Amino acid sequence: MAYSEQTTTTSTAVAYLQDFRSEPCQVCGENASGWHCGSITCEACKKFFLRSVNGEHVKYRCIRDKKCPITRTTRTQCQFCRYSKCIAIGMTLTEEHSNPKIEDIFRGIPCAVCTDASSGLHFGVTTCESCKGFFRRMIKERIPQHYKCLERNNCEVNTSTRNLCRACRFQKCLSVGMSIEGSRIGRQSNLFKHKMVEMQRHGLIQSQLFHVLTSNLNNPKKKTTHSREISSACVQQSPSLHGETSLPPELLRQIYEMEMSYRNYLKDLPSWSFDTNDLWAACISQFNHYSICVRNFVDGIPNFNSLNVEDKTSLVYQSIHSVMLMCFCIQSVRSETSNSTWNYLNLSSNSPFYQYIQQQFPFFFELFSSTRAFENDLQRLDLDDKEIALILTLLITSIGDYKSTPIEHLEEEFFSILLDYMTAHRGINSKDYFILTIRIPFVHRLNKLISTYITNLKCSLSHSM
Question: Boundaries of each Nuclear receptor domain copy (predicted)?
Answer without folding.
Answer: 22-98, 108-185
